[in-house]
Amino acid sequence: SMFNNKYIDDVAFKPTHNMQPINATNMFNSCRITNLKQILDDRGVTLDTSKSTSFQNFIAYSTITHLPCISLESCTYAPNIFSHATQLKYIEKLITNKNSGWQNSSFVQCILLETIEEIEGEIGTSWNISQSPLLDELTIDNIVNAYADMTGQTAPVFTVHATVKAKIVADDTKEDTDPTKRFWLRTLTSKN
């Protein structure tokens, strides 16, 4: 819980060393930082989360708008990772694996989330991103294409906002659609 403080804002947050947390739980919970990616880039500082095993409440209740690459490759527990980050708009990259610990609470109240620029690795659990009506087509494709082949296992459910579901259904008629990546349409649900 290094910067888990409502008094840590863009002025107070002046990292001078690269950060490599083993446990990212509450790391930026409730902080008042906005563009974390830009601050780190401007200061030449990196945030390497590849060894973090837990991301519970990572940026929950914060005012962060932009995130750098966030690696969940060692993570097994990520409830509320972005929960109630109501200003979050952009994630540069997510690195994930089938067991990264995503939970239905991971994206609660991410009402402004538009873009996840890149997703590396596989998603093997359900994602409820239904409170994010602004997701762009790149992000939708990135999420769908990251879903692991779960043949013979319980299929994860991808829950999206109704406006996002409409984009997905429209996009599914395109000729370049890879039908092997569209199995999830069977369990696609939406909420208004």
Tell me about this structure:
There is one protein chain. The chain has 192 residues and is of the alpha/beta class. Helix content is 15%, strand content 12%. It contains 3 helices and 9 strands; from the N terminus they run H-E-E-E-E-E-E-E-H-E-H-E. It has helices at residues 36-43, 137-146, 162-171, and strands spanning 66-67, 70-71, 90-91, 94-96, 115-116, 119-121, 127-129, 158-161, 189-191. The strands form 3 sheets. Strands 1-3-5 form a 3-stranded parallel β-sheet. Strands 2-4-6 form a 3-stranded parallel β-sheet, covered by helices on one side. Strands 7-8-9 form a 3-stranded parallel β-sheet. The protein starts with 35 loop residues before the first helix and ends with a strand.
Quick recap of the structure?
This protein is α/β, with parallel strands linked by helices and 192 residues long. It has a three-stranded parallel beta sheet with strand order 1-3-5. Strands 2-4-6 form a three-stranded parallel beta sheet, covered by helices on one side. 15% of the residues lie in helices and 12% in strands.
- Share of helical residues: 10-25%
- Alpha-carbon Rg, integer: 16 Å
Secondary structural class? alpha/beta
Q: Rough shape?
A: globular
Strand line-up of the largest beta sheet: 1-3-5
SSE string, helices as H and strands as E:
HEEEEEEEHEHE
Total helical elements: 3
Main beta-sheet annotation? 3 strands, parallel
| N- and C-termini, Cα separation | 34 Å
Average pLDDT level: 87
What portion of the residues fall into strands of 2 or more residues? 5-15%
Q: Unreliable segments (pLDDT under 50, ≥5 consecutive)?
A: 175-187
DSSP E strands, number: 9
